[in-house]
Design a protein that fits this description.
The complex is a heterodimer of chains A (about 160) and B (about 650). Chain A is mainly beta. Chain A has one helix at about 1-20, and strands at about 35, 50, 55-65, 70-75, 105-110, 115-125, 135-145, 150-155. Chain A is about 15% helix and about 40% strand. In chain B, about 5% of the residues lie in helices and about 55% in strands. In chain B, a hairpin with a 2-residue loop joins strand 27 and strand 28. The chains are: A mainly beta (about 160), B mainly beta (about 650). The interface of A and B includes residues 9, 12, 74, 144 and 146 of A.
Chain lengths: ~160, ~650
């Protein structure tokens, strides 16, 4: 009887091992894309100040091990001093205030199919009539498989 | 984290001192256990005769295993007490193949063999527990101290339970019937990792054929402690004060009243229960971004600030059994109301201005259930079982956030099942079931306008009117075979699951997970085919149980992450793909001394998507292999229900 039990356990173990080692032909993407500054002057960076009416010359490099998906840029006010912690930098902030006419920017951008490296380059026009103050600049990028990476920066608009 | 928890439970039923009762023989803890056993002994889940001082000789475990060909585990009050782990589902996760997904400091959701949420069914006193489907982040609204007995079915059980029972069923019973004119018990307990304090009390009594039961539980807990002073969440860096997760404190209040009448051949019971929980959400990671609030979360670790949720589950149910000769008829009627609110500080997002008030989401769902089940013994060898059930659900939403539309669902099911005892070593069974489900989803438009061009803006439609009806035929067949010390069970069957309104009609931001979720109104009912087996060997001191399974879904419904954005949030959509899953559980117990036993448990699960965009990927919540060993020393052995000291090792 005990032999049979031992046999069963071995069989179970074998199932487990073969199951673990049976690699399939389909290549799975298990890596997130990256937001990189390699070889360029990235823009914007933490604690920069921009003026109403001018453009933010956005520039970052996106990379992925297999294929990039798309990216999104979002700008929202930080008048209430909330925090995003993707960078360790603490920028000096203006006094807290309640937003009356804040700037909302939220736009999706495509990346050509098949790219593993892509330079994101957009001029984002700051409207002249928005409320100045502290803002957050968010970059989000996906790869084809749906992995996402993000980066956030604190900027000031005068 | 749960394993590092030190849980202490003090209970009157767990003391070593024999409590001499009116007739001078049984203790309180004794009667509890005896009843739990009685209920499992015969075909119905009801105890039909009140027995006192009766000794039944037999192999109870074996008889239980021969009752059905599906893999089932029966758990009595003793196990629940000696494995107490904060929440009921965490307690049950000691059973191989059962896992608890922790979703807060006092709450967790169950999963059987990697399938959770609406791919398994939780019943409470035979009524399907509603409320698991429309939120990933609240636990089972059940008073775990009112549970007398638990039965877990691993593997598909759609035949008797209908839609959803693909992964299995957890049946909770509060079916203990008092034996004394007046009796009661109380437990107090505490946990160190969230400083929880709880009390649970019971008062009950019996007069001739009538009996009554009352139950009350109150639990309070503070912010959850973690062994770190900062955490990284979704690439945000969050500092913690005193290694505590801000605002995760909460409290729970549960109560129930039961009235029953019982004579030979007839038993009826009316039960009213309510479970209420209020708990805070981790303050730094709720809503659309990590926010620095004006609220001083660190001023107290026991208060509950925004954001928080409150969940209430009210249930009225009646259960009746009539038995005459070889016929037994069981009927259940129930009304359940799930009422859940999520509140948070109002913030603007995208084109949504700052909303008025803090009510982010409200769900109000009422469910009416009726079932009739009939068992009929045909000759000595056939036991026919057939039944019918009907259910009506009505869901209404509220608040400024949208994720699940208003809907109504009507469902009917009918089944027939035969159990054929060929001889005392071999039992065969087979059955078939038909289900019809109709879902009606209402459209929803944003309460604010979104610009669609330079000059125009609209109230965007987030969910359209959807009307779907689903039909499904399911079947299963199985056998039980016993020879010598061996016991073999095998089962083959088809299960199904009707897509829930969230999967069909969701269209919005999921504030908990920072993503945009899109339903698919064209989803088909999810089907599942499974073969499983249970191989048992046991003698007086050693028992081994091996349960392998193979499971194939032609159209598993899952949420697929895409590379696209929608209003700044990554877009996820519901889709279907072919999935294969297989695995096993292995359990061995060696009672090498009367007071000392060694137990080993292990489980393995492999899940893989065979088609679609995520071909080759596994499924979420597919737990990795695990094994653990326990050495158990039992003291006060003469009293069942006593605590055991058991140092355990986990891998």
């Amino acid at each position: 009887m005990k032999k049979i039990i031992a046999g069963l356990s071995v069989a179970a173990l074998l199932t487990a091992i073969t199951a673990c080692s049976s690699d399939d032909e389909t290549v799975k993407d298990t890596q997130k894309p990256a937001i990189s500054e390699a070889g360029i002057t990235p823009n914007p960076v933490d604690c920069q100040t921009y003026s109403r009416g001018e453009a933010i010359p956005f520039q970052y490099i996106f990379t992925d091990n297999m294929e990039l998906g798309s990216y999104n840029i979002e700008i929202h006010n930080n008048f209430d001093h909330h925090t995003h912690g993707t960078s360790a930098t603490d920028c000096p902030l203006d006094k807290e205030k309640t937003a009356t006419n804040p700037w909302v920017f939220n736009k999706d951008y495509t990346i050509p199919a098949g790219s593993t490296t892509y330079k994101g380059r957009v001029d984002i026009q700051i409207p002249g009539d928005i409320e100045p103050g502290d803002y957050h600049f968010m970059i989000r990028v996906t790869d084809k498989a749906g992995w996402q990476e993000l980066k956030s920066m604190s900027i000031k608009i005068k | 984290m749960d394993k590092a928890t030190l849980a202490i439970i003090l209970s009157s039923t767990a003391l070593c001192f024999p409590v001499v009762s009116a007739n001078g023989t049984a203790t309180i803890s004794h009667t509890h256990n005896k009843t739990a056993r009685q209920t499992t002994a015969i075909g119905t889940a009801d105890s039909t005769v009140l027995m006192q001082d009766v000794t039944v000789i037999g192999n109870r475990k074996r008889d239980f295993q021969m009752r059905t060909s599906v893999n089932n585990v029966s758990i009595d009050k003793t196990f629940l007490q000696s494995n107490f782990a904060g929440s009921l589902m965490q307690t049950l996760s000691g059973v191989p193949g059962v896992k608890a997904m922790s979703i807060g400091s006092g709450q967790s959701k169950p999963a059987i063999r990697g399938l959770g949420f609406n791919r398994m069914v939780v019943t409470e006193d035979r009524i399907k527990h509603e409320g698991q489907q429309w939120g990933d982040d609240h636990g089972l609204e059940v008073d775990q101290f009112a549970v007398d007995h638990v039965e877990i079915i691993k593997g598909p059980a759609a035949l008797l339970y209908g839609s959803d029972a693909i992964g299995g069923v957890i049946n909770l019973y509060g079916n203990y019937i008092p034996t004394k004119p007046f009796q009661g018990s109380a437990s107090i307990f505490t946990r160190t990792n969230n400083e929880s304090l709880g009390i649970s009390a019971k008062l009950e009594g019996a007069m001739e054929h009538f009996y009554w039961k009352t139950n009350f539980t109150a639990i309070n807990y503070a912010d959850f402690k973690v062994p770190t002073d900062s955490i990284q969440y979704y690439s945000y860096y969050i500092r913690l004060k005193d290694k505590r997760l801000r605002n995760t404190a909460g409290h729970e209040r549960d109560g129930s009243v039961t009235l029953g009448y019982k004579t030979y051949g007839f038993h009826t019971e009316l039960k009213l229960s309510d479970a209420y929980t209020k708990s805070g959400f981790f303050a730094n990671a709720h809503g659309l971004e990590v926010r620095l609030s004006q609220i001083d979360y660190d001023r107290s670790r026991r208060d509950i600030d925004l954001p928080y949720q409150s969940v209430n589950h009210l249930k009225v149910m009646s259960h009746s059994v009539y038995q005459h000769g070889k016929i037994s008829i069981e009927a259940d009627l129930a009304y359940q109301n799930n009422y859940r609110k999520e509140l948070s500080e109002p913030v603007s997002h995208g084109y949504m201005p700052i909303p008025a008030g803090s009510l982010e989401r409200r769900f109000n769902k009422s469910t009416y259930t009726g079932t009739v089940d009939m068992k009929f013994g045909l000759g000595e060898r056939h036991l026919l079982n057939s039944g019918f059930n009907a259910e009506y659900q009505h869901n209404r939403r509220g608040g400024w956030g949208f994720i699940i539309p208003d809907f109504e669902t009507v469902a009917f099911g009918a089944y027939a099942f035969d159990r054929f005892t060929v001889n005392k070593h071999l039992i065969l069974n087979a059955g078939v079931r038909y289900d019809h489900v109709r879902t009606s989803i209402h459209s929803y438009h944003d309460w604010y306008k979104t610009p669609v061009s330079e000059t125009d803006s609209v109230y965007k439609e987030r969910s359209s009117d959807i009307r779907r009806s689903f039909n499904s035929i399911t079947w299963s067949a199985g056998l039980n075979f016993t020879s010598g010390n061996w016991l073999l069970k095998a089962n083959v069957g088809k299960s199904f699951r009707v897509p829930i309104p969230k999967e069909l009609g969701a269209d919005g931001v999921n504030y908990h997970i920072f993503r945009y979720e899109k339903g698919n109104p064209d989803l088909d009912p999810e089907e599942s085919y499974q073969v499983d087996a249970g191989i048992n060997w046991g003698n007086r001191t050693l028992s081994v149980e091996f349960s392998p399974y193979l499971n194939y879904f032609p159209n598993y419904i899952y949420m697929n992450p895409t590379a696209n954005y929608y209003e700044g949030l990554q877009w996820y959509f519901y889709t279907q793909s072919r999935v294969i899953r297989y695995g096993f559980e292995l359990q061995a117990n060696w009672q090498f001394l009367p007071f000392l036993s060694l137990e080993g448990k292990g489980e393995y699960l492999h899940a893989e998507q065979l088609s679609g965009e995520k071909k080759g990927f596994t499924l979420p919540f597919s737990t990795p292999w695990s094994a653990d060993g326990t050495l158990r020393y039992t003291f006060c052995r003469q009293q069942p229900g006593n605590e055991a000291l058991s140092p355990s090792m986990y891998t």
